[in-house]
Design goal:
By secondary structure, the chain is an all-alpha fold. It has helices at residues 4-24, 28-41, 46-58, 62-75, 80-92, 96-109, 114-126, 130-143, 148-160, 164-177, 182-194, 198-211, 216-228, 232-245, 250-262, 266-279, 284-297, 300-313, 318-330, 334-347, 353-365, 369-382, 387-399, 403-416, 421-433, 437-450, 455-467, 471-487. It is elongated and about 105 Å long. The termini are far apart.
Length: 488
């Protein structure tokens, strides 16, 4: 009988070699299936765990990659490749300091490991340690002066130093050595894109994709380029292509969600925003974007929850606090909204007119007229042309039956904008309180001409007409108001 253990060992070798072959060809899913078979034969084998981690990284599943490579390192901590690849995944997640430690450990284990030298140089560049980064890049080029990637590194470094012409020169040097170097084409394309040379940038991105068809980074920037060129449909298709290659590529999910939002397709935009958030659970930007989409959909409860999640991640987000306060205001949670605005004002930071104006409106709604007056005045001190604040002061005066002061505020507002329908309507109300039906009707008529489909103005016209004895005309406006309310 054949030795069973020899057969299993041969099967393991065969599966591992096939998995490596698929991984090198970019067929990550096929390679993963073989790895799952291997795990049944040799559970927790570090070389298989490491390979699975690399495959998850290549498909954009970074957290899973960290977990698997981490388990491989626990089993075999002295493998320089494992340490180096762990650093690579961390670097892709912008965890630069943690990545640096793994690259340094890889070089301690294998001082001449070129990929670790290169990666450590990249971390130095990202940390702003430009001299240290250049020293490592030059060390690599000294070993191999014809290494195109070494010149790409120097180009990236010069780009970080905002020396754009030198950066482009290094990318061109890389292409002289290796004309099929996809990364050099891509990086040149990015610089040309930033400079506004859109057609030239497109040619470079297409060259990058010609030499590396599944180059998701180049494909992503090509999508951004199409959007910038006024081709949102093409951009959207390209973002979908990116996600076919890397299903959890958060930048593609973000771009796709925002493109769909701009096209008015909020339901689908929400789907991709949720996927973005599922991959970046600690992203305040993703939480805020999702909250904004819910708000646009009219789902205030979902928007409120998403904004609160964003504030749990970073309680100091001022715009998020304001957005949440506005939702509470719309939900009728006036005290809660007001407390939020008061805290923002007490912080003393970025006190703009709108902050005082929103607070004033809430004070007025809560019958705190003195605080409302003070806040409207503070808003006007910040922005003397904020007509809504002038009108707010007029409405308080009207509520307090001080019609002459109300009239003064509304007339002052009307001088700044003679065609503001709200101001015209408020002034008509003032004359109604004074029982000056002729003037009330004149100003209400002007408001009606500005907004003929506003049911509130029709009802106001009906009140004035009825009070002045024109009951038939009043009924016509009431009927129109009812119809407009039904239509909306």
């Amino acid at each position: 009988m054949p030795d069973t253990s020899d057969f299993i060992e041969q099967r393991i070798q065969q599966l591992f070699q096939q998995a490596m072959h698929f991984q090198q060809k970019g067929a990550a899913e096929a390679a993963l299936q073989l790895c799952y078979e291997l795990m049944e034969l040799i559970p927790e084998a570090p070389e298989v765990l490491h390979l699975m981690g690399v495959l998850h990284y290549q498909t954009g599943k970074h957290e899973q990659a960290l977990h698997l490579i981490g388990k491989a390192i626990q089993e075999q901590p002295n493998q320089a490749d494992y340490q180096n690849n762990m650093g690579t995944v961390l670097l892709s997640l912008n965890r630069v300091d943690s990545a640096s430690a793994y690259f340094e450990e890889a070089l301690r284990l294998q001082p001449e490991l070129e990929s670790a030298l290169n990666n450590l140089g990249n971390t130095y560049r990202l940390q702003g340690q430009f001299k240290e980064a250049e020293a490592l890049y030059q060390q690599l080029l000294k070993k191999n002066p014809r290494d195109a990637h070494g010149y790409i590194n120097l180009g990236n470094l010069r780009q970080a130093q905002e020396q754009i012409d030198e950066a482009m020169g290094f990318y061109e040097k890389a292409l002289q050595i290796s004309p099929q170097q996809a990364e050099a084409h891509h990086n040149l394309g990015c610089l040309l894109f930033k400079q506004g040379h859109l057609q030239a940038a497109q040619e470079k991105f297409l060259m990058a994709l010609k030499y590396r068809p599944r180059y998701s980074e180049a494909l992503l920037h090509l999508g951004h380029l199409h959007y910038a060129m006024g081709r949102p449909d093409q951009a959207r298709l390209i973002y979908h292509d990116v996600l076919q290659i890397a299903p959890q590529e958060t930048r593609a999910l973000e771009a796709l969600s925002k493109t769909l939002e701009r096209e008015g397709n909020n339901p689908e935009a929400i789907v991709y925003a949720q996927k973005w958030l599922a991959n970046e659970a600690y992203s305040t930007q993703a939480q805020n974007h999702l909250a904004h989409l819910y708000y646009q959909q009219g789902d205030l409860a979902a928007a409120e929850a998403a904004y609160q999640n964003a504030l749990q991640l970073d309680p100091e987000q001022r715009q998020t606090q304001i957005a949440l306060s506005k939702i509470w205001q719309q939900q009728g949670k006036f005290e809660q909204a007001l407390s939020s605005y008061e805290r923002l004002i007490q912080s003393g930071q970025d006190l703009d007119a709108n902050l005082f104006f929103e607070s004033a409106q809430l004070y007025f709604q809560l019958d705190k007229n003195e605080q409302a007056k003070e806040s409207f005045q503070q808003a006007l001190a910040k922005d003397p042309y904020l007509l809504e604040a002038l009108n707010g002061l007029g409405l308080i005066a009207l509520a307090e039956h001080n019609t002459s002061q109300a009239q003064s505020y509304f007339e002052q507002s009307l001088k700044e904008d003679p065609y503001h329908p709200d101001t015209l309507s408020y002034l008509a109300h003032t004359y109604q309180h004074q029982q000056n039906w002729e003037q009330a009707l004149a100003y209400c008529q002007q408001a009606f001409e500005m907004e003929p489909n506003n049911p509130e103005i029709h009802l106001q016209m009906a009140e004035i007409l009825e009070a002045s004895g024109q009951k038939e005309q009043a009924e016509k406006h009431r009927a129109l108001a009812s119809q407009l309310q039904l239509d909306t």
